[in-house]
Amino acid sequence: MRNRNRTWWTFALILLLAIPSIWLALPTDVLDINGYKAAHPIRQGLDLQGGLQVVLQAQPVSGQELDKDTLEGTRATLERRVNGLGVSEPLIQIRGSDQIIVELPGVDDPQQAVDVLQQTALLEIIDPQGQYLPPGTVVDTTLGFADRGDAAATPAAAGATPVAASSDTGPNGPVYETVISGGDLKDAYVASGNNGFGQVVGFELQGDGASKFYDYTSSHLGQPMSIVIDKTVVSSPQINGAISDRGIIEGVPPAAVADLVIQLKAGALGVPLELAQSRTVGPTLGQDSIDRSVLAGIIGLGTVALFMILYYRLPGVISVVALLIYTAITFSLFKLIPVTLTLAGIAGFILSIGMAVDANVLIFARLKEELRSGRPLGQAIEAGFDHAWPSIRDSNISTMITTAILYFFGRYTGTSIITGFALTLFIGVVISMFTAIIVTRTFLRLLVSSEKLINERLYYAGTHAAPGATAAD
Questions:
Q1: 400-437 pLDDT per residue, tens
Q2: Which of 72, 195, 198, 281 has the most CB atoms in a 10 Å sphere around its CB?
Q3: Phi-psi bin for 130: left (phi > 0), alpha (psi -120 to 50), beta?
Q4: Cα–Cα distance for residue pair 401/378, rounded to 1 Å
Q5: pTM for this model (two decimals)
Q6: Could you tell me what percentage of the chain is helix, strand and coil, using 3-state DSSP and rounding each to the nearest 5?
């Protein structure tokens, strides 16, 4: 009686898991509640939904050596910027010795994405030597000189007070000392202005940067300091008190505040990048691929279901029901995590379905052997699962180890095709172990507990003699 009650409790838990999963796996426009399903759609990769693909060419400045580490650091910075854009599963990888490929699925504004990727966004707070530098002034600093083209394109504001020359002179005039730079930055965020209206860029400093900034501001009270982004003055506020670890950047256009926060948090690019190629990928081919994948999946699942039912009879029917529950749970997890599906990811999902069926085949084969040996049906079911479990466990753990290796390899190389395949296969294998061992076993136990359904011939393939009978019978 205790085991029977436990089986019914397990069945209830399966229903509590299966029903919401089936609901979430159904299309978004079916029985949506408070927009929850709409907020968790299936995310599609570039090959399915279209998007933007750009090739960025590294353009090292004079005297800069473009090595592997510099290019990898630039790629990592681009990845952080793309994460700030909210793009799912981007592909950012190095090609050759001086190019970086970026694929952004589903971007709404391709030009804005390209602009954010290319900008260097080097933050500097400089000592203007007691002079007020108006916004728009192009300056040379101790961290490097401004590009001459930039200086011509963004001259100082008309009527600005001439800046006194320093002891060092660069191509654009005096060379100003950089007090702190983006390397001292701990965080950047969107904040409200001092009057409570408008948006400004807030920043926090860390380590030596905070102490250097405190020393500078405390010794220059009443004097201006200049906040510089990419060698162009953004604002020159007056120092009214000693500042330690945080401050704000005013004077940034409202539409550019969010982009500047992304750039500052990501850091400066290791090397300037030039747009070598930009291509917008349409979703037409992707939709055709989805349609064909769905058709292939329906045909494959239907064929497998027919085979399981014809060969294994009632256990085959149960395995099909468990397989449908498996599909719903896995698909709903893809929406919740969320997983960005590419064609490779769909292939991993379909492969995991095959492994779920394989687990049931192992269990039912053991069940038939136990029935042949003369065990009662209830004992044969328990023994079949117990004996099949080690094989299922070992094979699935081996697959999960392989997918983990593939996933980290794909992350290391920036190949989203590999990571998508590995992730969907890993999730599918984990869920298949649950449905094969828990769901299928629970359903069989419930059927055995019903006296009207205890018919061993329903559990036994008709091509063999039934338990306790001989071929002559």
A1: 999 999 988 877 665 667 888 999 999 999 999 999 88
A2: 281
A3: left
A4: 34
A5: 0.62
A6: 55, 15, 30
